[in-house]
Amino acid sequence: MENSLMFIDGAWVEPDSGEYFPVLNPATGELAGSVPNGGYAEAVRAIDAAHLAFADWSAHTAEERAEYLMTWHRLIMQNLDDLAATLTMEQGKPLAEAKGEIGYGAKFIEWYAEEAKRVYGSTIPASARNKRVVVLRQPVGVVAAITPWNFPAAMVTRKIAPALAAGCTVILKPAEQTPLTSIKLYQLLEQAGLPKGVANLVTGDAVLIGKAFMEDSRVRKITFTGSTEVGKLLMKQAADTMKNISLELGGHAPFLVFDDADVESAVKGVIASKFRNAGQTCICANRILVQEGAADRFIALFKKEASALKVGNGLEEGTVIGPLIDKAGYEKVSLHVQDALAKGAHLVCGGEGFHQSDEEDAGYFYQPTVLSGVTADMRIMQEETFGPVAPVVTFKTEEEGIRMANDSVYGLAAYVFTESLSRAIRVGEKLEFGIVGINDGAPSTAQAPFGGFKESGLGREGGKEGIESFLETKFMSIGI
Protein backbone atom coordinates (compact mmCIF):
# COMPACT_ATOMS: atom_id res chain seq x y z
CA MET A 1 0.00 0.00 0.00
CA GLU A 2 1.52 3.31 -1.14
CA ASN A 3 1.67 6.31 1.16
CA SER A 4 -0.70 9.16 0.37
CA LEU A 5 0.61 12.68 -0.26
CA MET A 6 -0.45 16.26 0.45
CA PHE A 7 -1.62 18.59 -2.31
CA ILE A 8 0.10 21.99 -2.26
CA ASP A 9 0.32 24.47 -5.13
CA GLY A 10 -0.93 21.94 -7.67
CA ALA A 11 1.53 19.18 -6.74
CA TRP A 12 1.40 16.06 -4.60
CA VAL A 13 4.14 16.40 -1.99
CA GLU A 14 5.70 14.47 0.88
CA PRO A 15 5.95 15.87 4.42
CA ASP A 16 9.14 17.68 5.35
CA SER A 17 9.77 15.22 8.17
CA GLY A 18 9.30 12.15 5.98
CA GLU A 19 6.90 10.87 8.64
CA TYR A 20 3.51 9.30 7.97
CA PHE A 21 0.72 8.25 10.31
CA PRO A 22 -1.57 5.24 9.92
CA VAL A 23 -5.29 5.42 9.19
CA LEU A 24 -7.07 2.39 10.64
CA ASN A 25 -10.33 0.77 9.62
CA PRO A 26 -12.43 1.36 12.78
CA ALA A 27 -14.28 -1.93 12.24
CA THR A 28 -11.26 -4.22 11.99
CA GLY A 29 -8.17 -2.29 13.01
CA GLU A 30 -6.61 -3.08 9.63
CA LEU A 31 -4.44 -0.46 7.95
CA ALA A 32 -6.54 1.61 5.54
CA GLY A 33 -3.66 3.85 4.47
CA SER A 34 -0.73 6.01 5.53
CA VAL A 35 -0.93 9.78 5.37
CA PRO A 36 1.70 12.56 5.61
CA ASN A 37 2.31 13.93 9.07
CA GLY A 38 2.54 17.55 7.98
CA GLY A 39 2.74 20.55 10.25
CA TYR A 40 3.38 24.28 10.45
CA ALA A 41 5.81 24.62 7.53
CA GLU A 42 3.59 22.72 5.09
CA ALA A 43 0.56 24.77 6.15
CA VAL A 44 2.47 28.00 5.53
CA ARG A 45 3.44 26.83 2.03
CA ALA A 46 -0.20 26.00 1.36
CA ILE A 47 -1.18 29.50 2.51
CA ASP A 48 1.53 30.96 0.23
CA ALA A 49 0.10 29.05 -2.72
CA ALA A 50 -3.51 29.98 -1.97
CA HIS A 51 -2.60 33.63 -1.48
CA LEU A 52 -0.68 33.75 -4.78
CA ALA A 53 -3.50 32.03 -6.68
CA PHE A 54 -6.25 34.24 -5.28
CA ALA A 55 -5.88 37.20 -7.64
CA ASP A 56 -6.30 35.11 -10.79
CA TRP A 57 -8.97 32.77 -9.41
CA SER A 58 -11.13 35.61 -8.10
CA ALA A 59 -10.88 37.25 -11.55
CA HIS A 60 -12.37 34.15 -13.23
CA THR A 61 -15.96 34.67 -14.32
CA ALA A 62 -18.69 32.99 -12.36
CA GLU A 63 -19.39 30.75 -15.34
CA GLU A 64 -15.76 29.65 -15.49
CA ARG A 65 -15.69 28.77 -11.80
CA ALA A 66 -19.03 26.97 -12.17
CA GLU A 67 -17.67 24.82 -14.99
CA TYR A 68 -14.76 23.61 -12.85
CA LEU A 69 -17.22 22.70 -10.09
CA MET A 70 -19.57 20.86 -12.46
CA THR A 71 -16.64 18.88 -13.86
CA TRP A 72 -15.67 17.93 -10.30
CA HIS A 73 -19.27 16.92 -9.63
CA ARG A 74 -19.36 14.66 -12.70
CA LEU A 75 -16.08 12.99 -11.73
CA ILE A 76 -17.33 12.30 -8.21
CA MET A 77 -20.53 10.69 -9.47
CA GLN A 78 -18.54 8.59 -11.95
CA ASN A 79 -16.33 7.36 -9.08
CA LEU A 80 -19.08 7.04 -6.48
CA ASP A 81 -18.51 3.34 -5.69
CA ASP A 82 -14.76 3.76 -5.20
CA LEU A 83 -15.19 6.83 -3.01
CA ALA A 84 -17.85 5.12 -0.91
CA ALA A 85 -15.65 2.06 -0.35
CA THR A 86 -12.80 4.30 0.83
CA LEU A 87 -15.15 6.22 3.11
CA THR A 88 -16.48 3.04 4.74
CA MET A 89 -13.00 1.59 5.09
CA GLU A 90 -11.68 4.60 7.02
CA GLN A 91 -14.83 5.78 8.82
CA GLY A 92 -16.86 2.60 9.33
CA LYS A 93 -20.39 3.60 8.29
CA PRO A 94 -22.35 1.04 6.25
CA LEU A 95 -21.59 1.09 2.53
CA ALA A 96 -25.12 2.16 1.63
CA GLU A 97 -24.78 5.15 3.95
CA ALA A 98 -21.38 5.96 2.48
CA LYS A 99 -22.84 6.00 -1.03
CA GLY A 100 -25.60 8.25 0.23
CA GLU A 101 -23.03 10.62 1.74
CA ILE A 102 -21.03 10.82 -1.49
CA GLY A 103 -24.20 11.70 -3.42
CA TYR A 104 -25.27 14.20 -0.76
CA GLY A 105 -21.83 15.80 -0.77
CA ALA A 106 -21.84 16.06 -4.55
CA LYS A 107 -25.13 17.96 -4.37
CA PHE A 108 -23.35 20.84 -2.63
CA ILE A 109 -20.94 21.11 -5.54
CA GLU A 110 -23.78 21.15 -8.05
CA TRP A 111 -25.74 23.68 -5.98
CA TYR A 112 -22.85 26.12 -5.57
CA ALA A 113 -21.81 25.79 -9.20
CA GLU A 114 -25.25 27.24 -9.90
CA GLU A 115 -25.08 29.78 -7.05
CA ALA A 116 -21.77 31.16 -8.38
CA LYS A 117 -23.81 32.83 -11.10
CA ARG A 118 -26.18 34.40 -8.58
CA VAL A 119 -23.79 36.49 -6.48
CA TYR A 120 -25.55 39.78 -7.06
CA GLY A 121 -24.63 43.32 -6.16
CA SER A 122 -27.00 46.28 -6.17
CA THR A 123 -27.41 49.95 -6.95
CA ILE A 124 -28.86 52.30 -4.37
CA PRO A 125 -30.52 55.69 -4.98
CA ALA A 126 -27.95 58.36 -4.15
CA SER A 127 -28.56 61.38 -1.96
CA ALA A 128 -27.08 63.77 -4.53
CA ARG A 129 -27.64 64.20 -8.25
CA ASN A 130 -23.95 63.92 -9.04
CA LYS A 131 -23.40 60.61 -7.24
CA ARG A 132 -24.09 56.96 -7.90
CA VAL A 133 -24.03 54.31 -5.16
CA VAL A 134 -23.02 50.75 -6.08
CA VAL A 135 -22.73 47.68 -3.84
CA LEU A 136 -20.40 44.86 -4.88
CA ARG A 137 -19.97 41.34 -3.48
CA GLN A 138 -16.38 40.12 -3.60
CA PRO A 139 -14.63 36.95 -2.32
CA VAL A 140 -13.26 37.19 1.19
CA GLY A 141 -9.83 35.74 0.25
CA VAL A 142 -7.90 32.70 1.44
CA VAL A 143 -10.07 30.20 3.34
CA ALA A 144 -8.88 27.52 5.77
CA ALA A 145 -11.37 24.65 6.12
CA ILE A 146 -11.16 22.18 9.02
CA THR A 147 -13.43 19.13 8.70
CA PRO A 148 -14.53 16.33 11.08
CA TRP A 149 -14.28 12.55 10.81
CA ASN A 150 -17.98 11.65 10.87
CA PHE A 151 -18.74 12.90 7.33
CA PRO A 152 -15.41 12.81 5.48
CA ALA A 153 -16.93 13.68 2.09
CA ALA A 154 -19.97 15.89 2.71
CA MET A 155 -18.24 18.22 5.17
CA VAL A 156 -15.45 18.79 2.63
CA THR A 157 -17.71 19.63 -0.29
CA ARG A 158 -20.07 21.69 1.88
CA LYS A 159 -17.17 24.03 2.69
CA ILE A 160 -15.00 23.96 -0.42
CA ALA A 161 -17.76 24.26 -3.04
CA PRO A 162 -19.16 27.63 -1.86
CA ALA A 163 -15.65 28.96 -1.24
CA LEU A 164 -14.54 28.16 -4.79
CA ALA A 165 -17.85 29.36 -6.22
CA ALA A 166 -17.41 32.71 -4.47
CA GLY A 167 -13.89 33.12 -5.90
CA CYS A 168 -11.94 32.22 -2.75
CA THR A 169 -8.91 29.93 -2.64
CA VAL A 170 -8.81 27.22 0.01
CA ILE A 171 -6.65 25.03 2.22
CA LEU A 172 -8.27 21.91 3.67
CA LYS A 173 -7.21 20.22 6.91
CA PRO A 174 -9.23 16.96 7.18
CA ALA A 175 -9.64 14.97 10.39
CA GLU A 176 -6.71 12.68 11.20
CA GLN A 177 -9.05 9.67 11.49
CA THR A 178 -10.49 10.07 7.97
CA PRO A 179 -8.19 11.87 5.50
CA LEU A 180 -8.30 9.28 2.70
CA THR A 181 -11.69 10.32 1.31
CA SER A 182 -10.51 13.94 1.19
CA ILE A 183 -7.39 12.92 -0.70
CA LYS A 184 -9.47 11.06 -3.29
CA LEU A 185 -11.79 14.05 -3.65
CA TYR A 186 -8.74 16.25 -4.28
CA GLN A 187 -7.40 13.81 -6.88
CA LEU A 188 -10.67 14.29 -8.74
CA LEU A 189 -10.49 18.05 -8.24
CA GLU A 190 -7.05 17.97 -9.86
CA GLN A 191 -8.50 15.96 -12.75
CA ALA A 192 -11.11 18.68 -13.16
CA GLY A 193 -8.24 20.99 -14.15
CA LEU A 194 -8.43 23.47 -11.28
CA PRO A 195 -5.56 26.01 -11.54
CA LYS A 196 -2.66 25.33 -9.20
CA GLY A 197 -2.80 26.81 -5.74
CA VAL A 198 -6.57 27.33 -5.79
CA ALA A 199 -7.30 24.28 -3.61
CA ASN A 200 -4.68 22.83 -1.26
CA LEU A 201 -4.73 19.90 1.17
CA VAL A 202 -2.58 19.55 4.30
CA THR A 203 -2.70 16.54 6.63
CA GLY A 204 -1.05 15.94 9.97
CA ASP A 205 -0.65 17.70 13.30
CA ALA A 206 -3.90 19.58 14.00
CA VAL A 207 -2.29 21.92 16.55
CA LEU A 208 0.60 22.99 14.35
CA ILE A 209 -1.46 23.30 11.18
CA GLY A 210 -4.14 25.21 13.09
CA LYS A 211 -1.49 27.51 14.55
CA ALA A 212 -0.34 28.45 11.04
CA PHE A 213 -3.92 29.10 9.94
CA MET A 214 -4.77 31.26 12.93
CA GLU A 215 -1.55 33.31 13.03
CA ASP A 216 -1.38 34.20 9.34
CA SER A 217 -3.32 37.35 8.47
CA ARG A 218 -3.53 36.21 4.83
CA VAL A 219 -6.03 33.57 5.92
CA ARG A 220 -9.15 35.68 5.95
CA LYS A 221 -11.70 33.03 6.82
CA ILE A 222 -11.88 29.90 8.99
CA THR A 223 -14.67 27.40 8.46
CA PHE A 224 -14.76 24.62 11.05
CA THR A 225 -17.00 21.71 11.92
CA GLY A 226 -16.31 19.92 15.19
CA SER A 227 -16.70 20.18 18.94
CA THR A 228 -17.94 23.27 20.71
CA GLU A 229 -14.80 23.29 22.87
CA VAL A 230 -12.46 23.52 19.87
CA GLY A 231 -14.81 25.99 18.16
CA LYS A 232 -14.58 28.37 21.12
CA LEU A 233 -10.78 28.13 21.06
CA LEU A 234 -10.68 28.93 17.34
CA MET A 235 -13.04 31.86 17.86
CA LYS A 236 -10.70 33.33 20.48
CA GLN A 237 -7.65 32.83 18.25
CA ALA A 238 -9.43 34.33 15.23
CA ALA A 239 -9.85 37.60 17.12
CA ASP A 240 -6.13 38.43 16.83
CA THR A 241 -6.39 38.91 13.06
CA MET A 242 -10.17 39.53 12.96
CA LYS A 243 -10.85 36.56 10.70
CA ASN A 244 -14.26 35.84 9.31
CA ILE A 245 -15.29 32.59 11.04
CA SER A 246 -18.00 29.98 10.55
CA LEU A 247 -18.53 27.32 13.19
CA GLU A 248 -20.75 24.24 13.01
CA LEU A 249 -20.45 22.77 16.48
CA GLY A 250 -22.07 20.30 18.86
CA GLY A 251 -25.71 19.43 19.24
CA HIS A 252 -28.07 17.73 21.66
CA ALA A 253 -31.17 17.35 19.54
CA PRO A 254 -34.58 16.82 21.14
CA PHE A 255 -37.07 14.58 19.32
CA LEU A 256 -40.60 15.54 20.35
CA VAL A 257 -43.41 13.02 19.84
CA PHE A 258 -46.90 14.31 20.70
CA ASP A 259 -50.01 12.30 21.55
CA ASP A 260 -51.51 13.01 18.16
CA ALA A 261 -48.45 11.82 16.22
CA ASP A 262 -48.47 8.92 13.79
CA VAL A 263 -46.45 6.62 16.06
CA GLU A 264 -45.19 4.39 13.24
CA SER A 265 -43.96 7.43 11.34
CA ALA A 266 -42.35 8.81 14.51
CA VAL A 267 -40.47 5.56 15.15
CA LYS A 268 -39.23 5.47 11.55
CA GLY A 269 -38.12 9.07 11.98
CA VAL A 270 -36.25 8.47 15.20
CA ILE A 271 -34.57 5.35 13.80
CA ALA A 272 -33.37 7.37 10.79
CA SER A 273 -32.16 10.22 12.97
CA LYS A 274 -30.72 8.35 15.95
CA PHE A 275 -28.94 5.38 14.40
CA ARG A 276 -27.53 6.83 11.18
CA ASN A 277 -23.74 6.60 11.31
CA ALA A 278 -24.07 4.71 14.62
CA GLY A 279 -25.42 7.86 16.26
CA GLN A 280 -22.24 9.75 15.42
CA THR A 281 -23.88 12.80 13.87
CA CYS A 282 -24.26 16.30 15.26
CA ILE A 283 -27.98 16.45 14.43
CA CYS A 284 -28.98 12.95 15.58
CA ALA A 285 -31.79 12.66 18.12
CA ASN A 286 -30.20 12.72 21.57
CA ARG A 287 -33.22 13.28 23.80
CA ILE A 288 -36.43 11.47 22.86
CA LEU A 289 -39.30 13.41 24.48
CA VAL A 290 -42.64 11.58 24.23
CA GLN A 291 -45.99 12.84 25.47
CA GLU A 292 -47.45 10.46 28.05
CA GLY A 293 -50.43 9.35 25.96
CA ALA A 294 -48.16 8.02 23.19
CA ALA A 295 -45.32 6.68 25.34
CA ASP A 296 -46.28 3.00 25.70
CA ARG A 297 -47.03 2.52 22.00
CA PHE A 298 -43.94 4.43 20.97
CA ILE A 299 -41.53 2.55 23.27
CA ALA A 300 -42.92 -0.87 22.30
CA LEU A 301 -42.53 -0.21 18.59
CA PHE A 302 -39.18 1.54 19.06
CA LYS A 303 -37.86 -1.52 20.91
CA LYS A 304 -38.99 -3.83 18.12
CA GLU A 305 -37.44 -1.77 15.34
CA ALA A 306 -34.19 -0.94 17.16
CA SER A 307 -33.59 -4.54 18.21
CA ALA A 308 -33.75 -5.64 14.57
CA LEU A 309 -30.90 -3.41 13.41
CA LYS A 310 -27.77 -5.35 12.41
CA VAL A 311 -24.47 -4.23 13.94
CA GLY A 312 -21.21 -5.02 12.16
CA ASN A 313 -18.57 -4.13 9.61
CA GLY A 314 -19.90 -1.51 7.23
CA LEU A 315 -18.65 -3.51 4.24
CA GLU A 316 -20.80 -6.52 5.19
CA GLU A 317 -24.19 -6.81 3.52
CA GLY A 318 -27.13 -5.93 5.72
CA THR A 319 -25.15 -3.90 8.25
CA VAL A 320 -27.12 -0.91 9.52
CA ILE A 321 -24.93 0.18 12.43
CA GLY A 322 -21.17 0.21 11.97
CA PRO A 323 -18.38 0.67 14.51
CA LEU A 324 -17.75 3.60 16.78
CA ILE A 325 -14.81 5.64 15.56
CA ASP A 326 -12.40 4.69 18.37
CA LYS A 327 -11.99 3.50 21.94
CA ALA A 328 -12.65 6.93 23.44
CA GLY A 329 -15.96 7.14 21.61
CA TYR A 330 -16.93 3.69 22.83
CA GLU A 331 -16.01 4.49 26.42
CA LYS A 332 -18.15 7.65 26.38
CA VAL A 333 -21.17 5.71 25.12
CA SER A 334 -20.66 3.01 27.77
CA LEU A 335 -20.27 5.63 30.50
CA HIS A 336 -23.53 7.34 29.53
CA VAL A 337 -25.46 4.06 29.61
CA GLN A 338 -23.93 2.94 32.90
CA ASP A 339 -24.58 6.32 34.53
CA ALA A 340 -28.23 6.29 33.41
CA LEU A 341 -28.83 2.75 34.66
CA ALA A 342 -27.14 3.50 37.97
CA LYS A 343 -29.50 6.46 38.45
CA GLY A 344 -32.65 4.46 37.79
CA ALA A 345 -33.17 4.32 34.01
CA HIS A 346 -34.78 1.18 32.58
CA LEU A 347 -33.02 -0.78 29.83
CA VAL A 348 -35.55 -1.38 27.05
CA CYS A 349 -33.09 -3.04 24.65
CA GLY A 350 -29.38 -3.21 23.90
CA GLY A 351 -27.07 -1.85 26.55
CA GLU A 352 -23.96 -3.80 25.61
CA GLY A 353 -20.95 -3.28 23.40
CA PHE A 354 -18.10 -5.44 22.19
CA HIS A 355 -14.53 -5.18 20.92
CA GLN A 356 -13.34 -7.40 18.09
CA SER A 357 -9.90 -6.34 16.97
CA ASP A 358 -6.32 -6.87 18.05
CA GLU A 359 -5.87 -3.11 17.74
CA GLU A 360 -6.60 -1.28 21.01
CA ASP A 361 -8.13 1.76 19.28
CA ALA A 362 -10.37 0.04 16.71
CA GLY A 363 -13.06 -2.62 16.45
CA TYR A 364 -15.52 -1.13 18.96
CA PHE A 365 -19.24 -1.71 18.44
CA TYR A 366 -22.31 -0.90 20.51
CA GLN A 367 -25.77 -2.37 20.22
CA PRO A 368 -28.68 -0.05 19.40
CA THR A 369 -29.88 0.88 22.87
CA VAL A 370 -33.16 2.32 24.14
CA LEU A 371 -33.52 3.58 27.71
CA SER A 372 -36.75 4.65 29.41
CA GLY A 373 -37.37 6.33 32.75
CA VAL A 374 -34.56 8.76 32.03
CA THR A 375 -34.25 11.88 34.19
CA ALA A 376 -32.59 15.26 33.76
CA ASP A 377 -29.75 14.53 36.22
CA MET A 378 -28.31 11.77 34.02
CA ARG A 379 -25.23 12.56 31.93
CA ILE A 380 -26.93 11.35 28.78
CA MET A 381 -29.41 14.22 29.12
CA GLN A 382 -26.67 16.82 29.53
CA GLU A 383 -23.94 15.71 27.12
CA GLU A 384 -23.85 14.72 23.45
CA THR A 385 -23.47 10.92 23.43
CA PHE A 386 -22.32 10.40 19.83
CA GLY A 387 -23.40 6.79 19.83
CA PRO A 388 -26.41 4.52 19.19
CA VAL A 389 -28.20 5.18 22.48
CA ALA A 390 -31.70 6.67 22.70
CA PRO A 391 -32.94 7.95 26.08
CA VAL A 392 -36.73 8.29 26.27
CA VAL A 393 -38.35 10.84 28.59
CA THR A 394 -42.07 11.53 28.96
CA PHE A 395 -43.82 14.88 29.31
CA LYS A 396 -47.40 15.96 30.05
CA THR A 397 -48.20 19.18 28.19
CA GLU A 398 -47.05 20.92 25.04
CA GLU A 399 -45.52 23.71 27.11
CA GLU A 400 -43.54 21.23 29.20
CA GLY A 401 -42.25 19.49 26.07
CA ILE A 402 -41.05 22.77 24.58
CA ARG A 403 -39.39 23.76 27.85
CA MET A 404 -37.56 20.42 28.10
CA ALA A 405 -36.48 20.62 24.45
CA ASN A 406 -35.03 24.11 24.88
CA ASP A 407 -33.27 23.22 28.14
CA SER A 408 -29.83 22.93 26.56
CA VAL A 409 -26.85 25.13 25.75
CA TYR A 410 -27.02 23.65 22.25
CA GLY A 411 -29.41 24.65 19.50
CA LEU A 412 -28.53 22.81 16.30
CA ALA A 413 -31.44 20.52 15.37
CA ALA A 414 -34.81 19.50 16.79
CA TYR A 415 -37.59 17.21 15.61
CA VAL A 416 -41.36 17.40 16.06
CA PHE A 417 -43.85 14.66 15.24
CA THR A 418 -47.52 15.63 15.30
CA GLU A 419 -50.51 15.38 12.98
CA SER A 420 -51.70 18.85 13.99
CA LEU A 421 -50.67 21.61 11.59
CA SER A 422 -51.32 24.27 14.22
CA ARG A 423 -49.16 22.48 16.78
CA ALA A 424 -46.38 21.90 14.24
CA ILE A 425 -46.18 25.62 13.45
CA ARG A 426 -46.62 26.69 17.08
CA VAL A 427 -43.96 24.35 18.46
CA GLY A 428 -41.58 24.78 15.52
CA GLU A 429 -41.50 28.54 16.03
CA LYS A 430 -40.84 28.25 19.78
CA LEU A 431 -37.95 25.78 19.51
CA GLU A 432 -34.54 27.45 19.90
CA PHE A 433 -32.82 25.49 17.14
CA GLY A 434 -31.47 26.33 13.71
CA ILE A 435 -32.97 23.23 12.08
CA VAL A 436 -36.41 21.79 12.84
CA GLY A 437 -37.61 18.58 11.22
CA ILE A 438 -41.41 18.40 11.37
CA ASN A 439 -42.50 14.81 10.74
CA ASP A 440 -39.07 14.47 9.13
CA GLY A 441 -36.17 12.61 10.72
CA ALA A 442 -33.70 13.50 7.95
CA PRO A 443 -34.06 17.21 7.14
CA SER A 444 -30.59 17.98 5.73
CA THR A 445 -30.42 19.05 2.08
CA ALA A 446 -27.97 21.06 -0.01
CA GLN A 447 -30.43 23.81 -0.87
CA ALA A 448 -31.33 24.69 2.74
CA PRO A 449 -29.24 26.56 5.36
CA PHE A 450 -27.63 24.27 7.96
CA GLY A 451 -26.49 25.69 11.29
CA GLY A 452 -27.42 26.27 14.90
CA PHE A 453 -28.38 28.66 17.68
CA LYS A 454 -26.56 29.20 20.99
CA GLU A 455 -23.40 27.09 21.49
CA SER A 456 -24.03 25.08 18.34
CA GLY A 457 -22.19 27.60 16.23
CA LEU A 458 -22.13 30.63 13.95
CA GLY A 459 -23.15 30.97 10.32
CA ARG A 460 -24.90 28.66 7.89
CA GLU A 461 -23.78 26.08 5.35
CA GLY A 462 -25.95 25.08 2.41
CA GLY A 463 -28.65 27.06 0.66
CA LYS A 464 -28.16 30.53 -0.74
CA GLU A 465 -27.02 31.54 2.77
CA GLY A 466 -24.03 29.19 2.56
CA ILE A 467 -22.09 31.34 0.10
CA GLU A 468 -22.68 34.58 2.01
CA SER A 469 -19.89 34.16 4.55
CA PHE A 470 -17.34 33.69 1.75
CA LEU A 471 -18.18 37.14 0.40
CA GLU A 472 -17.34 40.68 1.46
CA THR A 473 -19.72 43.58 0.83
CA LYS A 474 -18.16 46.68 -0.74
CA PHE A 475 -20.01 49.98 -1.17
CA MET A 476 -18.70 52.46 -3.77
CA SER A 477 -19.91 56.05 -3.92
CA ILE A 478 -19.15 57.45 -7.38
CA GLY A 479 -19.11 61.14 -8.16
CA ILE A 480 -20.04 61.97 -11.76
Automatic annotation (TrEMBL):
GO terms for molecular function: succinate-semialdehyde dehydrogenase (NAD+) activity. InterPro entries: Ald_DH/histidinol_DH, Ald_DH_C, Ald_DH_CS_CYS, Ald_DH_N, Aldehyde_DH_dom, Aldehyde_DH_Superfamily, Succ_semiAld_DH. The keyword Plastid does not apply. GO terms for biological process: gamma-aminobutyric acid catabolic process. Keywords: Oxidoreductase. The keyword Oxidoreductase applies. PANTHER family: SUCCINATE-SEMIALDEHYDE DEHYDROGENASE, MITOCHONDRIAL (PTHR43353:SF5). Belongs to the aldehyde dehydrogenase family. This is Succinate-semialdehyde dehydrogenase.
